[in-house]
Amino acid sequence: xxxxxxxxxxxxxxxxxxxxxxxxxxxxxxxxxxxxxxxxxxxxxxxxxxxxxxxxxxxxxxxxxxxxxxxxxxxxxxxxxxxxxxxxxxxxxxxxxxxxxxxxxxxxxxxxxxxxxxxxxxxxxxxxxxxxxxxxxxxxxxxxxxxxxxxxxxxxxxxxxxxxxxxxxxxxxxxxxxxxxxxxxxxxxxxxxxxxxxxxxxxxxxxxxxxxxxxxxxxxxxxxxxxxxxx
Length: 231
Known about the structure:
Layout: E1 4-7, H1 17-29, H2 37-44, H3 49-59, H4 66-84, H5 94-102, E2 107-110, H6 115-124, E3 133-135, H7 148-160, E4 173-177, H8 180-188, E5 192-196, E6 210-212
Parallel strand pairs: 1-2, 1-4, 2-3, 4-5, 5-6
Helix pairs in contact: 1-4, 3-4
């Protein structure tokens, strides 16, 4: 039985994955490292900024000093903000979907993005009021496909419930994801997963319980069917 929904952020709510790639590509180029878009999509997309930078440099045999790491992350953030240009490109239909979902279920965000990026976007787009919990890169240590972020989001949702309510279990949660690692993390957490082909092709997301082209095509009352047969 469906009792809560956990959303990824980049690639599900905010259409900015390519902006993050371009900003990180610019940052590592200053370190003499070139990363292609395909390489980024295949290996680094679901990682938080710190892990992404470290992984790229490790894979390209480029050791980093602490000062270089701080400078690169600062440059990446500045480049991202410049590319965003103060706009918040939401995916079609996502704002309406979130509003409808929030009228039925408690909602959370679990993402490798920085908290200030997430809360800033949600506040600016009027979506902040729909989310009970936001779990961001600063809150966990193991990124997707590890299930830590999803389990932490559920833990914090349960902490917000009335003390007399039975805690929501992982098998009563739906995760909405756009990445292969995100799908793997949701399933590893024991949660159902709705995957959206905003970033990856349908065949790459096939492990999810359901794959759709857009949240605009999803009816809220169709979501419980993903839990049919679940004890």
